[in-house]
Specification:
The protein has strands spanning 4-8, 27-34, 41-46, 49-54, 58-63, 70-71, 80-82, 85-87. It is mainly β. The chain has one domain (4-78): Roll (SH3 type barrels). Strands 1, 2, 3, 4, 5 and 6 form a six-stranded mixed beta sheet that branches. Strands 7-8 form a two-stranded antiparallel sheet. A hairpin with a 6-residue loop joins β2 (27-34) and β3. It is globular and about 30 Å long. Keywords: Coiled coil, Endoplasmic reticulum, Glycoprotein, SH3 domain, Signal. One of its GO terms (cellular component) is endoplasmic reticulum membrane. Its main location: endoplasmic reticulum.
């Protein structure tokens, strides 16, 4: 379930396939806000695309869930299938 709807305030091109790419003005549904060392990253979707993006590239348009959902992250959450092999930060 989406937490909020946001609008991109800048164009964003992520470093790899785990990230959501978008252009200024596009709407994104936010599903989680990561905690700990990745607290600047949110996860969300735009159409069929889903991925991470920096929270400072968007502005909140509508809050859909009042409660913040904290997601604890594991290394495996950041795996990306790239050129037939897994890469991890």
């Amino acid at each position: 379930e989406a937490m909020s709807r946001v609008q991109a305030t800048t164009d964003y091109l992520g470093p790899d396939c785990r990230y959501l790419n978008f252009k200024t003005g596009e709407e994104i549904m936010v599903y989680s806000k990561l905690s700990r060392e990745n607290e600047n990253l949110w996860t969300g979707s735009k159409g069929k695309d889903f991925g991470y993006f920096p929270r400072d590239t968007v502005k909140v348009e509508e809050v859909l869930i009042g409660e913040e959902v904290e997601v604890l992250t594991k290394e495996t959450d950041f795996l990306c299938l790239h050129e037939d092999k897994y890469t991890s930060e």
